[in-house]
Design brief:
Layout lengths: L2 H9 L3 E2 L5 E7 L3 E2 L12 E2 L2 E8 L4 E6 L2 E9 L2 E6 L5 E6 L10 E4 L4 E6 L5 E9 L7 E3 L2 H7 L4 H6 L4
Antiparallel strand pairs: 1-2, 2-5, 3-4, 5-12, 6-11, 6-13, 7-10, 7-12, 8-9, 8-11
Bound molecules: guanine.
The site of guanine has 9 residues, from strand 2, strand 5 and strand 12.
Amino acid sequence: MTEKTAQLIDQLKLQPHPEGGYFRETYRSNGTIHIESLSKLYDGKRNYSTCIYFLLTSDKFSAFHKIHQDEIWHFYQGSPIHLHMIQPDGTYDKIIIGSNIDKGEVPQNVVSGGTWFASEVIAEDGYALAGCTVAPGFDFNDFELAERKSLIDLFPEYRESITQLTRG
Ligand code: GUN
């Protein structure tokens, strides 16, 4: 880990995330949505919205996972990020989250709920600080980390990416 990364983890009080990278929740709305107003995917009430800081480093990719909610990414600083997305219909998109708009990077992106996604810092020795906002609010009951073999069975054409961006 570089000095800069260690400093950011300390300053922003980040914790390791189960998918890889580091995070801290910065916002959770007081208001909640009753289970009857949510889709059948949800197993209980949820806050209106939540937001996290999310830090990725070159040696800590975020492994393929999915959540029920749409997730909005915001780029803050550091190196650009490859965001890989596999939609339920098998469409694969790979975009670059970053601030160099002239180079085709986007500072903001929405990952639709139900999409498998993974992310990695493109540079070999860098970090990226982003924010991720979801509505309804985040709950680990809505989160599924991909199992490598199961995801390859679902999308065999993406075996190489899935192998690189899962941990087992
Ligand atoms: N809170 C804890 N983990 C996450 C996550 O992966 N995404 C979002 N948006 N919020 C979280």
